[in-house]
């Protein structure tokens, strides 16, 4: 029995797709998977349902949880809601653990600090082999000197992580860059941090490569919109492109965390309104795929705090659309390793401008051979399941 704790269910941010692919990979590796998740999780994409079961929390709809960073009261309200939902989710997790003989427990979603506290108080350092996935290696405290709340949050999380890795806890990230960064941040050997790739399945509908050479290049900014995703940086750079370069910027995804006005004001400020298309709402998986298929380039101009591998990056590569990503992140590492786009230095305005010009030029003259098939092979659920199995079953001193 492999217990997979995925409290986010079918949230924005593609938790549904990520958890389903991960489950399929674990089943391929020979496990029976029990997922602890919210009631909005839909198991329709689990291939072998005879080796899958779910244990639901009391949470009905995880998409109703909205983050508000606008001020102290917004953060406080959001924090209280997270605490309440954590109590509901952990109660279900404890019941699932007590009701089964499990071999492994993996925590892949939810609030990191709360997850670490649950592991510490329920398993300590030696009782059972568990794992936690760290989705962003952002524990460099220098990044939070101007934000006392986040500083304390990250400091406490880092201390708990450092303590727990002295025992049998398996710590996963989503790639080589993240593991190396996290090891430095925790001051531990890099071989103590394991990784598995974000699982990806190739589209059954191949991308149409041919494009009208006279049509504007379609640039896609996709996914749940947050400040750390650098939309303002992208707008500034696009405003400085030569006027002869024809492009259309498509912004698709929920703006609940920043507000519609944040997007519209930036487009107005940089005179991009007439060159943009807005779809500011929650997108279904099919809609996400359609936006990526229709785009020429996906742009991920994320800030330095984002060192992770985003599901947007995973989707754009598996669907055959090249991406522009930050070289410091796992996104940029994979762009370069698998030759599926262009990288630039995060928050470096001039370097993003260079990458945009190069990418648009390459698309217009069809100047690249991309490694999409190699990417998909390395990120297949089966390959990911084997990575996880290997890490969970290796001995620890």
Instruction: Name the shape in a single word.
Output: globular
Number of domains: 2
Question: What integer is the average pLDDT?
Answer: 89
Task: Give the structural class.
Answer: alpha/beta
Number of strands: 13
CATH topology of the largest domain: Rossmann fold
The CATH H-level homologous superfamily of the largest domain: Glycogen Phosphorylase B
Given this structure, which CATH class of the largest domain is correct? Alpha Beta
Give the termini separation. Answer: 24 Å
Number of helices: 13
Would you write up a description of this structure?
The chain has 397 residues and is an alpha/beta fold. It has 2 domains: 2-199 and 380-393, Rossmann fold, CATH 3.40.50.2000; 217-377, Glycogen Phosphorylase B (Rossmann fold). It has 13 helices and 13 strands. The strands form 2 sheets. The chain has a 7-stranded parallel beta sheet with strand order 3-2-1-4-5-6-7, with helices on both faces. Strand 12, helix 10 and strand 13 form a beta-alpha-beta unit. It is globular, with a radius of gyration of 21 Å. The two termini are 24 Å apart.
Question: What are the defining features of this structure?
Answer:
seven-stranded parallel beta sheet; 2 domains; alpha/beta; Rossmann fold; globular; 13 helices
Blueprint (SSEs and pairs):
Blueprint lengths: L1 E5 L8 H14 L4 E5 L14 E5 L15 H27 L5 E4 L4 H12 L6 E4 L14 H17 L5 E4 L2 H11 L6 E3 L21 E6 L8 H9 L7 E6 L7 H10 L6 E4 L5 H10 L2 E4 L10 H8 L4 E4 L3 H9 L2 E4 L4 H16 L7 H7 L2 H13 L4
Helix pairs in contact: 1-13, 3-4, 6-11
């Amino acid at each position: 029995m492999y217990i997979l704790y995925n409290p986010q269910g079918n949230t924005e941010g593609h938790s549904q797709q990520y958890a389903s692919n991960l489950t399929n990979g674990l089943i391929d590796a020979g496990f029976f998977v029990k997922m602890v998740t919210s009631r909005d999780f839909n198991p329709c994409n689990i291939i072998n349902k005879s080796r899958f079961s779910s244990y639901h929390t009391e949470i009905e709809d995880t998409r109703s949880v909205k983050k508000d960073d606008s001020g102290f009261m917004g953060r406080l309200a959001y924090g209280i809601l997270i605490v309440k939902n954590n109590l509901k989710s952990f109660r279900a997790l404890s019941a699932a653990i007590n009701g089964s003989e499990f071999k492994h427990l993996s925590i892949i979603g939810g609030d990191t600090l709360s997850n670490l506290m649950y592991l510490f108080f329920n398993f300590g350092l030696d009782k059972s082999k568990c794992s936690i996935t760290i989705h962003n290696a952002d524990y460099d405290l220098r990044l939070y000197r101007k934000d006392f709340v986040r500083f304390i949050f990250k400091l406490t999380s880092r201390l708990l992580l450092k303590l727990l890795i002295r025992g049998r806890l398996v710590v996963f990230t989503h790639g080589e860059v993240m593991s190396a960064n996290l090891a430095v941040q925790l001051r531990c050997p890099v071989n103590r941090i394991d990784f598995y790739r974000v699982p990806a399945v190739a589209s059954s509908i191949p991308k149409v490569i041919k494009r009208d050479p006279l049509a504007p290049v379609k640039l896609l900014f996709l996914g749940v919109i947050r400040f750390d995703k650098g939309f303002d940086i992208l707008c500034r750079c696009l405003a400085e492109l030569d006027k002869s370069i024809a492009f259309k910027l498509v912004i698709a995804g929920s703006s609940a965390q920043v507000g519609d006005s944040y997007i519209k004001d930036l487009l107005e400020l940089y005179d991009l309104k007439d060159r943009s298309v807005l779809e500011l709402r929650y997108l279904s998986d099919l809609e996400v795929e359609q936006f990526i298929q229709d785009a020429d380039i996906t742009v991920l101009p994320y800030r330095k705090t984002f060192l992770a591998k985003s599901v947007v990056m995973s989707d754009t590569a598996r669907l055959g659309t090249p991406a522009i990503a930050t070289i410091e992140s796992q996104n940029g590492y994979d762009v370069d390793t698998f030759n599926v786009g262009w990288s630039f230095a995060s928050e470096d305005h001039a370097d993003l401008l260079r990458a945009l010009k190069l990418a648009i030029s390459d698309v217009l003259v069809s100047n690249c051979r991309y490694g999409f098939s190699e990417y998909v092979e390395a990120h297949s659920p089966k390959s990911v399941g084997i990575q996880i199995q290997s890490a969970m079953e290796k001995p620890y001193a």
